[in-house]
Amino acid sequence: MSKTRLVFATGNQGKVNEFRQMLGEDYEILSLKDLDISVDIVEDGATFEENAIIKAKTVMEATGHMVLADDSGFEIDCLNKEPGIYSARYLGEDTPYEIKNAELLKRCEGVPDEKRDARFVCVIACAYPDGTVDTATGVIEGKVAHEAKGEHGFGYDPIFFLPERGCTTGEMLPEEKNAISHRGIAIRKMVDILKKKGTA
Q1: Does residue 71 carry a catalytic annotation?
Q2: How far apart are CA 27 and CA 68, in angstroms?
Q3: CATH architecture of 4-196
Q4: Domain residues of the chain, as ranges?
Q5: Coil vs helix vs strand at 74
Q6: Dihedral sign computed on CA atoms, order 6, 7, 10, 12
């Protein structure tokens, strides 16, 4: 039985490996790097879901294969859900996250704990060659920390505090974080969708 080819529209090999582990042997999962293709993607959607769909459909149209893409970010309620869909580009795409995190902490100074609600959101879209699309969403709720802590993870992890765990996601070991993360939740949901369709 031949494997179903699935392209993951990412340059992040860690994401590709994670999907390979979760989908098992039924899929041949390839990254854009594996296919040696470069696709110009304009992420002009207003939501995580719209941007994930744009990425997945653009690459599907360029390759003719089933394509997965994800869009994710960090929302802070007291800052009108900033940085939101602009999380990767907040204060500029090449700005170090230490600076981004410091600026967000500064903007949240004096905000009481009960108003520091925040979350990580991830939407994964799967675009099929027939033009249809499925999406899966993962969310993890927490608070904006009062100071950056932790050397694990990346991005906004050092300032995302989980009250029930008493630490930031930046202080959690990768396997701990992956078990509860927004991306892990979305991946597991998408795997279920693919399996129900009989394509996994």
Answers
A1: yes
A2: 12
A3: Alpha-Beta Complex (3.90)
A4: 4-196
A5: strand
A6: positive
Containing 13, the helix (H) or strand (E) segment is: helix 13-23
Distance CA 191, CA 196 (A): 9
d(CA 143, CA 197): 37
Q: Token pair 């100074």 is at which residue? A: 109
* Centroid of chain to Cα 4: 23
Phi first, then psi: what are they for 147, rounded to 5°?
-155, 155
Q: What is d(CA 191, CA 200) in angstroms, rounded to the nearest whole number? A: 8
Close Cβ partners of 50 (under 8 Å, ≥ 6 residues apart): none
- One digit per residue, the tens of pLDDT, for the chain of length 200 reads 567 888 998 877 777 877 777 777 778 888 888 888 888 888 889 999 999 999 999 999 998 989 999 999 999 999 999 999 999 899 998 899 999 999 999 999 999 999 999 999 999 999 999 999 999 999 999 999 999 999 987 899 999 999 999 999 999 988 888 889 998 899 889 989 988 886 64
Q: What is the dihedral of CA 14, 129, 72, 23, to 10 degrees?
A: -40
Q: Residue 32's closest CA among 15, 65, 52, 7?
A: 7
For 3, 16, 42, 102, 183, the CA distances from 59, given in Å and listed in that order, are 20, 15, 11, 35, 20
Which pTM was predicted? 0.89
Q: Which of 71, 77, 113, 192 is catalytic?
A: 71
